[in-house]
Design brief:
This protein is of the alpha+beta class. Helix content is 36%, strand content 19%. The protein folds into three domains: 2-121; 143-256, no CATH class; 258-316, no CATH class. The protein contains eight helices and 14 strands. α2 (20-33) packs across α5 and α6 (157-185) packs antiparallel against α7. The relative contact order is 0.13.
């Protein structure tokens, strides 16, 4: 058992992957290694795993919803252990149910008898997305002026002020581009290489600023969910989205993050642009295999279906 735990820890630390399934397995492995002489099976409740692996913004989550499905954990454990003649580990699990009966997880040696091994289950073709809690995404200093607590009511004074500044800013930017193009057209003599470079830089700068600052705020009105501009979230934050929704007869805009656990490898799935390989505006892409493990995204049901290339098992059939 101790040898198998050491081998698993080595694999998890030498080949790190992003995803809570890997963090949970490493936490369980370290906890077992801290008690090398214990003869009792070390079991973990969902709340223990959340306390040991969750970050500050996840501490108030429901533990049973925070822990990935057992099929994902078992598949992740299998992928983390290369084929060898040495002892291997499997994940034991007893489901909870009823008052006071909680789910339990533990690591144990895999039986040598094939009939006693945990049966391998094919990865699910669907995923369940999670929406981050209100205020879980830290905003930048500039965004704090209008996204109080990570959200704003569109028709409030704060929201109207921001939308007005957005419209005025976009109009000013278009006017500035027109003035610069007009100034270039009024130059005497033939167009020089310097003029072409100036024109190219002007157009490139306009397109970049328009896409990064203004476009997401116009698109979120129709698409409801778009990728948030980098300047809206704090520097320490990773991928996040802008979501527009209706509550109490008012439209709101908030900074949020949609994520899921990859059924194929156990890493984290984040929303990313669908193009060029998919026509959908946003799809769920695994951070470790973004072009192979791809899923659709439904904002209302928080569900997605596999839309990536055929799996190796399917291709061999």
């Amino acid at each position: 058992m101790f040898e198998a735990l050491q081998r698993l820890k080595h694999q998890l630390t030498e080949n790190p992957s992003r995803g809570r399934a890997y963090e949970i397995l490493l936490f369980m492995t370290n906890s077992c290694l801290d008690r090398p002489d214990s003869q009792e099976k070390l079991t973990f409740e969902a709340r223990n795993l959340l306390a040991g692996c969750g970050n500050a913004t996840e501490k108030d989550s429901d533990p049973k919803d925070w822990v990935p499905k057992i099929a994902i954990l078992r598949r992740t454990l299998k992928l983390a252990q290369p084929e060898s003649d040495g002892p291997r580990l499997q994940l034991g699990y007893t489901p909870g149910g009823g008052r006071g009966v909680v789910s339990l997880y533990w690591l144990e040696l895999e039986p040598q008898n094939d009939g006693e091994k945990t049966p391998e289950i094919a990865p699910s073709s669907t995923v369940a997305y999670r929406r981050s809690a209100k205020g879980a995404i830290k905003t930048s200093l500039a965004a704090r002026l209008f996204l109080k607590g990570g959200e704003m009511r569109n028709l409030s004074f704060r929201g109207l002020s921001f939308l007005s500044s957005l419209l005025l800013g976009s109009a000013f930017w278009i006017l500035l581009l027109a003035i610069m193009l007009f100034a270039l057209s009024q130059r005497d003599g033939p167009l020089t290489m310097g003029g072409l470079i100036t024109l190219g830089l002007t157009l490139a700068g306009f397109v970049f600023i328009w896409r990064e600052i203004y476009t997401p705020w116009f698109r979120v009105v129709d698409d409801c969910v778009v990728k948030a501009p980098d300047w809206v979230s704090a520097f320490s934050e990773t991928s996040c989205e802008l979501e527009m929704f209706r509550h109490d007869n008012y439209r709101w805009t908030r900074l949020v993050r949609f994520s899921a656990d990859c059924p194929v490898c156990g890493s984290t799935i984040e929303l990313q642009p669908g193009k060029p390989d998919h026509q959908l505006p946003l799809v769920g892409r695994c951070v470790e295999s973004p072009h192979a493990h791809v899923y659709s995204f439904d904002r209302m049901t928080l569900r997605g279906a596999y839309i990536g290339p055929p799996m190796p098992e399917e291709r061999d059939q």
